[in-house]
């Protein structure tokens, strides 16, 4: 932990999202950034001690300036550290051949049913030992950090046996303990029906419910429990059983919902009180309304639609209906092989009708609430973790105007400078 105070000074724009601890932003509130011009942040012991105009903080801390490490943010944009609330960080192997198949017209489900897709990564991940998984995943985590991400959620789901699911989750825990980026773990044993159960998927559901979930909970390897509710994968009935079993063992429910076709996933998310429903490319308007009423966060993954050349989720409709929306990379080897959350923000604007203000809210305060971390990250407020990003742009509009560019200059995690000049320290 940083022993000296850290003082970020004189940002052209300091975006705070003041009040973000109270809950995710919805509707018009997603455009309320709380901008301080010529803003500064004083940090001590890994936490934010004060946020405000530079002249006010200079007056308050003048006698302690000699103690502090000073970072000059003149002419730059400062935001909360970015939060990625949906990744499949820990995996082995690569699936570039499927990219070629899609370019030739094959669909996601055609590839999956031919033994590709998730099942291909399952084979590679089962074969990899924990150390190999750790090294590959650490490299990805470094890249997340270089793109301004200070907290990620990481799902299992490429093992589909108890041993291999535990292996993924244990690697995620090692990453959390050893890497600057915080890693929040989700158990997703119900990511696909493994080939050895393809003729009896209910038996695999029973395995997830009676064996995997209790053991994951006993070892305290995850906070959340996720399921891929989709035609040809897990039915709403099977998904409900899995999510309720997770709740009984203290795992908060999440759900991959309505990605390929309308399947009642959004409605199920509201019914079981899920923290988030993710993907939602084909969610019904009724499902969106139920999510809004239940406070379920919609985690949208435009990189997946982009890479699969599919229809994008209806972000504008969801926001207008009052669904709290977050954005994520869905980093995975098959449908979204990217670690660039800033590019996902670009896609939110260019392909889903979101405003620059909304995509910033969706990757900070709302993303934090999508992993139940809104009380400690996602906004720049006194007492929160000192997680900040300094971008080489003068204002938040320029962040989206220059698309597919990594504008990150400096990343601060827990009050420590971990990226400087676009390079890892």
Characterise this structure.
- The chain has 425 residues and is α/β, with parallel strands linked by helices.
- The chain is 38% helix and 22% strand.
- It has helices spanning 54-61, 96-103, 108-113, 118-127, 130-146, 162-178, 201-218, 236-248, 265-272, 285-294, 302-308, 315-321, 341-352, 356-362, 365-370, 396-401, and strands at 6-15, 35-44, 47-53, 69-72, 77-80, 82-84, 149-155, 182-190, 224-229, 252-257, 276-279, 297-300, 325-327, 388-391, 408-413, 416-420, 423-424.
- Strands 1, 2, 3, 4, 5, 14, 15, 16 and 17 form a nine-stranded mixed sheet that branches. An eight-stranded parallel sheet has the order 6-7-8-9-10-11-12-13.
- Strand 7, helix 6 and strand 8 (182-190) form a beta-alpha-beta unit.
Summarize the structure.
Helices cover 38% and strands 22% of the residues. The protein is built from 16 helices and 17 strands. The protein has helices at 54-61, 96-103, 108-113, 118-127, 130-146, 162-178, 201-218, 236-248, 265-272, 285-294, 302-308, 315-321, 341-352, 356-362, 365-370, 396-401; strands at residues 6-15, 35-44, 47-53, 69-72, 77-80, 82-84, 149-155, 182-190, 224-229, 252-257, 276-279, 297-300, 325-327, 388-391, 408-413, 416-420, 423-424.
SSE layout:
Blueprint: E1 6-15, E2 35-44, E3 47-53, H1 54-61, E4 69-72, E5 77-80, E6 82-84, H2 96-103, H3 108-113, H4 118-127, H5 130-146, E7 149-155, H6 162-178, E8 182-190, H7 201-218, E9 224-229, H8 236-248, E10 252-257, H9 265-272, E11 276-279, H10 285-294, E12 297-300, H11 302-308, H12 315-321, E13 325-327, H13 341-352, H14 356-362, H15 365-370, E14 388-391, H16 396-401, E15 408-413, E16 416-420, E17 423-424
Parallel strand pairs: 1-4, 1-5, 6-7, 7-8, 8-9, 9-10, 10-11, 11-12, 12-13
Antiparallel strand pairs: 1-2, 2-3, 5-14, 14-15, 15-16, 16-17
């Amino acid at each position: 932990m940083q022993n000296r105070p850290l003082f970020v000074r004189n940002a052209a724009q300091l975006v705070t999202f003041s009040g973000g601890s109270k809950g995710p932003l919805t509707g018009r509130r997603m455009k309320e950034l709380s901008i301080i011009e010529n803003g500064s942040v004083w940090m001590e012991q890994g936490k934010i001690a004060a946020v405000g105009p530079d002249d006010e903080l200079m007056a308050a801390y003048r006698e302690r300036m000699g103690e502090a490490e000073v970072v000059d943010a003149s002419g730059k944009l400062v935001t909360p550290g970015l939060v990625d609330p949906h990744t499949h960080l820990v995996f082995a192997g690569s699936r570039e051949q499927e990219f070629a198949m899609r370019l030739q017209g094959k669909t996601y489900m055609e590839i999956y049913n031919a033994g590709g897709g998730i099942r291909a990564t399952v084979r590679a991940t089962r074969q990899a030992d924990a150390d190999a998984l750790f090294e590959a995943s650490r490299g990805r985590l470094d890249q997340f950090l270089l793109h301004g991400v200070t907290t990620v959620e990481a799902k299992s789901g490429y093992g589909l046996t108890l041993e291999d699911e535990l292996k993924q989750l244990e690697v995620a825990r090692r990453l959390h303990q050893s890497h600057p980026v915080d890693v929040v773990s989700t158990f997703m044993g119900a990511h696909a029906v493994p080939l050895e159960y393809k003729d009896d998927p209910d038996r695999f559901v029973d395995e997830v419910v009676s064996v995997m979930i209790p053991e994951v909970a006993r070892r305290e390897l995850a906070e959340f429990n996720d399921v891929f509710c989709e035609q040809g994968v897990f039915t709403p009935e099977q998904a409900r059983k899995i999510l309720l079993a997770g709740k009984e063992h203290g795992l908060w429910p999440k759900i991959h919902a309505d990605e390929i076709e309308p399947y009642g996933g959004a409605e199920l998310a509201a019914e079981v009180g899920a923290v988030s429903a993710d993907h939602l490319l084909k969610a019904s308007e009724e499902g969106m309304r139920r999510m809004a009423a239940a406070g379920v966060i919609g985690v949208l993954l435009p990189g997946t639609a982009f890479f699969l050349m599919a229809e994008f989720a209806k972000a504008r409709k969801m926001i207008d209906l009052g669904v709290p929306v977050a954005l994520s990379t869905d980093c995975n080897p098959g449908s979204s092989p990217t670690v660039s959350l800033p590019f996902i923000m670009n896609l939110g604007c260019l392909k889903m009708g979101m405003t620059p203000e909304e995509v910033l809210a969706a990757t900070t305060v709302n993303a934090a609430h999508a992993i139940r971390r809104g009380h400690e990250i996602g906004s720049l407020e006194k007492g929160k973790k000192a997680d900040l990003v300094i971008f080489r742009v003068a204002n938040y509009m320029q962040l989206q105007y220059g698309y597919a560019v990594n504008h990150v200059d400096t990343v601060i995690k827990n009050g420590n400078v971990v990226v400087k000049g676009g390079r890892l320290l």
